[in-house]
Q: What sequence folds into this?
């Protein structure tokens, strides 16, 4: 799969791409999460958390609800992001806010438990170098 040209050039958009973006968070964050592009509280991380209960709409789509969904999504992306880094596929993914957001998530939840969190702590520091070596090996093999 890693050396398959078609797999390396997949043109797709993933939900994670729609839910992450670069911006200015209320607490200084630069990689932000949004519940969905058309949700009234899609930019809740950009406003004061004290206003989250009123930020949104009357149907209960508030910033507090968005934050609870953010906390559900964050840990599920860790393994996927690490796998992409370890295989050198970040550039092919084509959406850097996703990877910046997962880095942010992991910094903010350093004491998180679970397999993906433990593997992240063990391998994240060298993941990009490992991924670069994987891609170099594939390129060399392809050129032979």
A:
């Amino acid at each position: 799969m890693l050396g398959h040209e078609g797999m390396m050039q997949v043109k797709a958009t993933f939900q994670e791409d729609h839910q992450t973006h670069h911006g200015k968070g209320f607490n200084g964050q630069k990689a932000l999460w949004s519940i969905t592009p058309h949700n009234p509280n899609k930019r809740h991380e950009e406003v004061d958390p004290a206003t989250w209960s009123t930020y949104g709409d009357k149907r209960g789509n508030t910033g507090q609800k968005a934050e609870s969904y953010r906390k559900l999504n964050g840990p599920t992306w860790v393994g996927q992001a690490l796998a992409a880094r370890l295989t050198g596929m970040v550039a092919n993914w084509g959406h850097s806010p996703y990877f910046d957001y997962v880095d942010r998530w992991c910094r903010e939840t350093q004491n998180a438990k679970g397999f993906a969190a433990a593997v992240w702590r063990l391998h994240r520091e060298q993941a990009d170098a490992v991924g670069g070596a994987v891609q170099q090996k594939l390129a060399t093999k392809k050129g032979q």
In short: The chain has one domain: 5-143. DSSP finds seven helices and two strands in the chain. Residues 18 and 37 are 7 Å apart (CA to CA).
